[in-house]
Amino acid sequence: MSDISKLEPRNVWEHFHAVTQVPRPSKKEERIIAFLEDFARKHKLAYAKDDAGNIVIRRPASETMASRPTVVLQSHMDMVCEKNADVSFDFDKDPIQTYIDNGWVRARGTTLGADDGIGMAAALAVLSDVSLELPAVEALFTVDEETGLTGAFNLGKDMITGKYLINLDSEDEGEIFIGCAGGIDTVATFKYKAEEPAGKQAFFELRVSGLQGGHSGDDIDKNRGNSNKILAAFLAKAAEICAIRLVNFDGGNLRNAIPREASAVFAVPVDNVLQLFDLLDKYCEAMSREYAHAEPKLDISISEVPAAAYVIDVATQEGLLGAINDVPNGILAMSRTMEGLVQTSTNLASVKFKDGMTIVVTTSQRSSVEEERLEAAASVQSVFERAGASVEHSDGYPGWEPDPESGLLAVAVAAYEKLFGKKPHARAIHAGLECGLFLKKYPELEMISIGPTLRGVHSPDERLEIASVAKFWQLLIDILQSIGQ
Description:
- By secondary structure, the chain is α+β, with helices and mostly antiparallel strands.
- The protein folds into two domains: 3-180 and 399-482, Zn peptidases (Aminopeptidase); 184-393, Alpha-Beta Plaits.
- It has helices at residues 10-20, 30-42, 114-128, 150-153, 227-242, 273-290, 314-326, 370-386, 407-420, 435-441, 466-482, and strands spanning 46-49, 55-59, 71-76, 98-101, 104-107, 137-142, 164-167, 175-180, 182-191, 194-195, 201-209, 245-251, 262-269, 299-304, 311-312, 330-334, 342-354, 358-367, 390-393, 425-429, 446-449, 454-455, 463-465.
- It has a six-stranded mixed β-sheet, with helices on one face. It has a five-stranded antiparallel β-sheet with strand order 16-17-18-9-19, covered by helices on one side. Strands 4-5-23-22 form a four-stranded antiparallel β-sheet.
- Helix 1 (10-20) crosses helix 3 (114-128), helix 5 packs across helix 7 (314-326) and helix 9 packs across helix 11 (466-482).
- The protein starts with 9 loop residues before the first helix and ends with a helix.
């Protein structure tokens, strides 16, 4: 058993270890669903599953708490599946390999899945610890939060009955979240023609790596490099000066992750190879200066590869590279009402060559202001349509408007002050949470979101601060025992 199962609070860490051993990519949650059903049966707890695959497990109130209101604890089952390029790992089959590193829990070369495995673990610990005197608890575990919020969108009728909901999907101990941004995806599709390379050509692969990546909501304000932007900027220069012709572009993976790596294969006339290398040397120097502090491990490398059978047509190449360079990326607006909060942003998440001579570029826009979210999506759409792409938008999801007068928030703040002798910070978050969707289905809900400290979320640098888990657990139990006093 992993060493993490020996950490304290033991019950939480044992459950977290168990969760890490179950493969649970988004849209492939059948194993973790079975795990939760087995858990409910083992502990003789009533549970229900809706058509989407969401699970709710119910713990009855302790005798001394029978008159208290029911509380919903909510977490999501799926995890972001990102790994370093040099790591061999199958997220559909392999358990996460955890280890302890100087006060943090990490995974070897992959995402850890503490988003939201640690929230699941806390809920399971509440359900299984019969020594705790608690009100009735409904632990709701949703599917597919990371790639579409489809579990929350399709939550079955009457799955929950509690008036209070504590979301366990936040990443900063000492902060209580009371609002979040809404989001929408904008996806552009290019169609290209294959052409035979003309004349004597050399073929190269250019790779951008070593970036931090991270969560496209939480980390968008950290000036981190976007691998797609960095790669496309050089390719556009090289096309203009060295007449390169693009064969392939593969950058980023997930819509809600800042892309860390990108690569492109291209042809260049043999007579222009030295000019290409000189151009690349100058570009690497410029990027090293620009990202010296934000991305100290940025690496741009080039290697010769076998000749390809075709290159894409010039018009599509110009449209694709031009759009990637022109499309907005990063912060678009800061909040005018909450200091330090990103209000609106956009993320150029991935560029993928698909079957059928198709190139798909996925972007995501976030905002706590509905009109700005739609305006950002329209701006991105305009750039890609001018470049010749067809564009579609996802249905999007609503934000969660803060309620600073919430009674549940007051209970949580008082519990934190009592336990730790200082006042927690109540704030909104630029990342998306499922809370806005729950509020649409259950408008009477009062909600907060709490969690331990996580860093590097949605990247292989994801790590969970050990000391913060104990404080998160203490706070959760105190809130549960204080509601309705």
